[in-house]
Amino acid sequence: MSIMMGLETGKRAITVQQLALQTTGHNIANANTEGYTRQTVGMEAARPFCTPGIPSSSGVGQIGTGVSAGSITRIREEYIDLQIRKENRNSGYWESIQDGMEKIEVIINEPSNTGLRSVMEAFWQSWQDLSVNPESEAVRAVVVERGNALAETFNHMYQQFTDLKTDINSNIRIKVQEMNSIITQLRDLNKEILAISVSGQSPNDLMDKRDLLLDQLSRMADISITEDNYGMVSVQMGGRAIVQGTDCTTLSTSSDPNGMYMVIWADTGIKANISSGELGGLLDLRGQTTLAQENSISEYKEIIPELIDELNTMAKTIVVMTNQIHRGGYSLNNNSDPASGFPDGTNFFSMPDDPDTIDNWASYMKLDGLILSDANNIAAAANRTWDENDQESNFGDGSIALRIAQLKQSINVSSSSTSSESLSGVLAFPSSVAGDLTVNYTGGPSTTITLAAPAEAYQDLQELAAAIQHGLDANNDLSTAGISIKVSCDGDRLIFSSSNSAFEGISDVDLLGGTAFSALNNIGGMIENVTGDDYWASIASGVGVQCQQAARMSENQGILLNQLENERQSVSGVSLDEETADLLKYQAAYNAAARFITVIDEQLDTIINRMGTVGR
């Protein structure tokens, strides 16, 4: 063995221990760096040599040549990464839902003294008070005030829900942009990792950055990840590869006429299937768009749209039912002709010309202009308050106001359908009414009821309703379809109702040139035998339950992720105590290697300077 070989062995030892010291220092420097993975130097014995000049059969064996650094590797467990990313998507989803439900809970604001339920209670109570004192202008002013407060509460809640929906819609677009940024970064990192890997080196820090991005992306949507021999990752989402080697596919958004964004693939324009993660939670909160690519039955939970629908149901039911009763009453102003047979009650709440064109009843809800301008137009009485000679007789018995107050308990319109139309100004009784009306229903063509001229004129609206009822009961088409329609009258209003939801209303009415009926289809839609207060209470409690569930699921996911992260850190995290111990270990080995070189140097000094000096 050459003495110079000892120098090489010592040099290798110093070099490798120095590399280990540098790696340990790198670990310490990144102890608080997010996503950093502890690195270690893989040391292995260098290739040995046979004893030179001695046959192998008689030699002592191979001579070691020191140490070499096999690699610098990351200490990371793939299984833990897989579990964290799997739970990340669930955690991201429930955090989005929790955030949205907490905002919804603030909007509903129940139970409270300023919530919708309290405002409705005050509204019904004002009608109760008016039924006791129908002549009181002060009580009438309170009815107007509280009716206006109820309408404004519905308006405000509707606006808050739509604002929240719009805000979430904007967040969907922002989230897509964030995902695209991560996708392109992953593609670029794949390129860098490939360039370093093919040269035989380990791009450890680049892989840490890549894995951190994968953790972030897994929180936004459901993804699956595979890694090739060069360290490049392929990422799948929604049935497509968003990252494949050095290529990537990004997302985009397409908006419907209402400005609601649908998530699509940027290259094809086809809808992207997102079912989990933060983006999935946002989509469940906001609901689907009106674009053609969306399914007829939504794949999302439609949390906010359903609440808006329920709010509209409440508003529509209160408006229609209150108006139907109010139109059958008499006001203090006595605006109708006593000979007409009709009361002078108007709509208490404003009604659209064509109710079928209105979906956002909570936003539309407002008091009728006549009520706002003069509280005496409130029709609280069932009888005229003045006689035909315009002489005061009484203020009525307040029975109409009482009936409206009782809606608090009876406004439980089921899923039946209703059509109605005012005949005021069209018919005057006694009247010989004749003509046709068309009944519309699903599952078959419409059918026509023909009303022949009676032998004797109808004396009032009740007689006309009875004649129409007879025609409906005798109709074979309706009988075959299993649809039973009941006709009733309320003030100057004919009401057509059916417990069969197939009934779509009355149209094309021609009664002595009368105008067509306005089809108020599917009025209400609330659960049968449930009052309006109970219906709203069930909505509020349902939101509370959903909010608690989201908070519980989010907390559970947080606990699970925290446990998994602790496991990851126990394997991959930097322990300063451990790194300090390694510093001492590698420093001692470095010092020993340096001492070994000193010994070789002394041997060389002896050979060079002292050998061959005998006899001098």
UniProtKB/TrEMBL annotation:
Keywords carried by this UniProt record: Bacterial flagellum, Cell projection, Cilium, Flagellum, Secreted
Annotated Gene Ontology MF terms?
A: structural molecule activity
Look up keyword Secreted and say if it applies: yes
> What is a single cellular component term in the Gene Ontology annotation?
extracellular region
Entry's Gene Ontology BP terms: bacterial-type flagellum assembly
Per UniProt, subcellular location reads as: Bacterial flagellum; Secreted
Where does the Flagellar hook-associated protein FlgK helical domain start and stop, copy by copy? 101-335
Report if keyword Secreted is assigned. yes
Domain Flagellar basal-body/hook protein C-terminal as annotated: residue spans: 570-609
Ranges for domain Flagellar basal body rod protein N-terminal: 7-37
Query: Which family is annotated?
Result: Belongs to the flagella basal body rod proteins family.
What is this protein's name? Flagellar hook-associated protein flgk
Taxonomic source organism: hydrocarbon metagenome
The top of its lineage is: unclassified sequences, metagenomes, ecological metagenomes
